Structure formats: C-alpha cells, structure tokens
Amino acid sequence: MKGIWFCFFIWIVPVGFHDAFGQEKYQRPIIVIDPGHGGTDSGATGINGVREKDVVFKIAAEVLRLNREMFGDSLAIYSTRYTDTLISLGNRTKLANALKADVFVSIHCNQAIRNEAQGIEVYIKRGNGKAARLAGSFTAGLNQKLGLKNRGIKYGNFQVLRETGNCPGVLLELGFLSNAEEAEHNDKKSSISAYALLVLETLVKYFYHD
C-alpha cells in the first residue's frame, strides 16, 4: 500500500468551467449516482463498526456538493437516494432509464472472509465498450491518484448493471471493510472527499476530454 493513500487530493477547477466547454445546462451529461444499500440494509460492516451504507451515502452526497461548488454543475447528477432509505434495485435502474442517463455509477464497499483482502474492483456488464473505457479510467485513477491496490475490472451480472440498457454502467467496490486499514481509511472525512473528487474528475474527463 502506498503512502499516498491517506492524502487529500484537490483538483483546481477554473472559474467559468461550465462555459469553457460550451455546455448549456440542458446539454449537460446526465449522471445517476447510486449509493448502495440503505435503510434496513446496511451492506458490509467493518471491523471498526463502519457501515457500507453510510460510507457510500457520504461519498454520493459529496459528489453532489462538489459538482455544484467546485465544478459549476458541469454534470447533471442525480442520486438514487438522498436519505438513509432502502430503494429497490428495480427502482434504481428505473430512475436511470427514465432520465435517459448517460452514465450510471453504483458505489459500494467490499467484504471478504480473509481480513488481508484489500483493494478496489470495478464491475461492468460484459459487451459494453463505453463502460469498459470508463471502468479503465476509474481503476487507473483510484490506483494512481489515491494509491489503492487495483484488483482490476471484472464482469458482473448485477441487476443495477443489467437493467440500465445501453447506458454505460459501472459498479465501484471501494476497498474492503473487512480489512482493518481500509475500514479505517473509509471512515475518514478526507477519504470521502478524495473518493468524490476522483469520481467527478473521471466523469468530467470521460465526457469533456476523451
């Protein structure tokens, strides 16, 4: 694990970011951020007591805040939940389909029987080239900028990926809460902000620079 891991990264966003790309609000890419679990479904629970549903909800909320305050609302971002509520998987994908989302990003944390297991994984639906390109950007950024071990891009038949049609969907597994170091890391406010910034930077690059 790299020492860079616990650093807080800040990307400088120029004033007039929105105008710099010639994008009017109605032309903004539509992103659905999906913080997993919620309500009675806590997801994974870390050995330090941190709950997956809380970690991913905080990341999603920070993505929304930073998109507004640092990125000039350059992306039209919607969340599948804005409170600690359990939303069905079907309703999560229905939102993406109703909005005709350009990208669907589901955020999760991992868990394993072996406490030594660590690192990030990005899941996509097989056969979606755009999702594969986006997943490659996420794995590279999470590894190179945040110092997380890269466990690679994997194929998963998850409902939230399967039922979003041709929309590029990715499911991020941001570390193992069963690993003491990663559980501690994911419980820090600075880590939440770093994840959110990485998500935004990756999406901005995907839509405006690639």
Automatic annotation (TrEMBL):
<dbReference type="Pfam" id="PF01520">
    <property type="entry name" value="Amidase_3"/>
</dbReference>
<dbReference type="GO" id="GO:0008745">
    <property type="term" value="F:N-acetylmuramoyl-L-alanine amidase activity"/>
</dbReference>
<dbReference type="GO" id="GO:0030288">
    <property type="term" value="C:outer membrane-bounded periplasmic space"/>
</dbReference>
<dbReference type="InterPro" id="IPR050695">
    <property type="entry name" value="N-acetylmuramoyl_amidase_3"/>
</dbReference>
<keyword id="KW-0378">Hydrolase</keyword>
<dbReference type="GO" id="GO:0009253">
    <property type="term" value="P:peptidoglycan catabolic process"/>
</dbReference>
<protein>
    <recommendedName>
        <fullName>N-acetylmuramoyl-L-alanine amidase</fullName>
        <ecNumber>3.5.1.28</ecNumber>
    </recommendedName>
</protein>
<feature type="domain" description="MurNAc-LAA">
    <location>
        <begin position="93"/>
        <end position="204"/>
    </location>
</feature>
<dbReference type="InterPro" id="IPR002508">
    <property type="entry name" value="MurNAc-LAA_cat"/>
</dbReference>
